[in-house]
Amino acid sequence: MRKLQIKDIYFGKIDGYNEFLEYGQDTCKGLFYEFPNIDISRLLDGSTYYIFGNKGTGKTMLLKYLESIISENPSQSFSEFIRFKRDIDEEERNQIKRSALPNNSFEEIIDSEIPTDFTLDCSLAWQVYLIKVIVSRLSKTEYGVFDRNTDSWTKLCALLNATYGELGTDNTIKKILPKMKRGNLEIDFSKIAKTNLEFEWIDSKEKSVSFTSLAKQIINLYSVLTPVEDKIYIFIDELELAFKQTKKYQRDVALIRDLIFAIEYLSDINRTHNFNVFLITAIRSEVYKNIISKGLEINKTIHDFGVTISWEQKGGNIRNHPLLKMLEKRIHFSETKLGLKPSPNIWETYFIPYIGNSKKEVQNYILDQTWYKPRDIIRLFTVIQRLHGNKNVIDQECFDTSRKPYAEESWTEFEEFLTVKYSDKEVEGIKKSLTGIQLPFSVSDFQHHLNSKRDFFEEVNELVTKRKTPEILKDLYDIGIIGNYSSNSRFMFKGDTDIDPIMPITIHYPLIKFFQASINYH
Known about the structure:
Blueprint: H1 16-23, H2 25-31, H3 40-44, E1 50-53, H4 59-70, E2 77-83, H5 84-87, H6 90-98, H7 106-111, H8 123-139, H9 151-164, E3 184-186, E4 208-210, H10 211-223, E5 231-237, H11 246-272, E6 277-284, H12 285-293, H13 299-305, E7 306-308, H14 322-337, H15 346-350, E8 354-355, E9 360-361, H16 362-368, H17 374-388, H18 396-418, H19 424-434, H20 443-454, H21 458-466, H22 469-478, E10 482-484, E11 505-507, H23 509-515
Parallel strand pairs: 1-6, 1-7, 2-5, 5-6
Antiparallel strand pairs: 3-4, 8-9, 10-11
């Protein structure tokens, strides 16, 4: 039986969007493994419109998969994909924040540093932006969705054109807000002179209006449009969080919080008025948790209209684990793509059955290398592919030689998470504090390890000076670097929400090679 070489397998890309760019829509659709806990039909009919998940769980790929389904029936529905990682630059992020309605004077916000005040409300700005995207997208097509012969449609288009410039041109979809000064903006009155719209003019020349009054006009006009049968889907990929600068991170969390509310408000309008407009957004779970920690009431909204991507499996046959099923699908797809007959059992065809002296089943070994995310599987096997592309069986050598580069690449991602809270110097201190520590260790062992290194390493000294040991260990547990060691190890990514400070502590298995720890398990 002919077999693939490892180099010929479509393992995928670490970033879902890059996977789409390289492979194209058809291939990505073929690679996609439907999540066990997500009902695709509820996303397509508007019952669910928030998708939550940790980094690397496949949120972007899910949006692109939904997009590919919609593209199968272009005569009745179409979509627009907003990717904030590329579509929103630094200045535009700050601009949308400045459009907020502050409790204090607007000048105070604009003159200060990047606003991080969670009492600000940017939901109006987001609603206007999303309405503008919908209308701009429709203006480039002959699709229905709304009756374009109505007075309300004419007025809405005129008002958006007066605000942003001609829709559908000059890259206006990526333009979040028009230029404003102190919360007010000048509009081209000639474009709305025939609409008979009433405005609260700021100046006597009737050129400048407050953004708030303008936004309410736009939302009101949108809400009285007349629907027709065609559908439009607006996919909103998560806003890329700013790392290393905490104030920007807090600003981005506030922006996403208000985006959640804006989508709820517009979706309510769409549902109430039978509009065939569907807004679907992907948001990182960490952002959601951060919003909740600020005491903002979004639990009901998320519970009613959200779903969290989960790759956990509680009990059952390990071979049915969704991450392993995802891997199987990618190998079978690769075989079909290259004209081979799909293997009846990919584990017998492409893998040795057991790994190491302990003779651990290869399926268990693979899952032990992960944090239960597709990104981990893809990262592990692309490392193996890079090192052993000409082989046609993934054997002990493949796993052994890939451990260190896989650990290094995984640690780089964890450094990003840590820089949200810790300085670059402190992150380096954390790295040095874990290097060489015996496993498992206790809280006091870790404290002793820190103290023994602080005189030698300036980075460790700064870490110890600024942070308490329990704080460091809790943060390392929360993002999955460490866990509790026992016959049934406890880790955050396994659903164990808090570290047990009394139990022994260990570094998660795939990172041990990175820290070259001296293992002393009993």
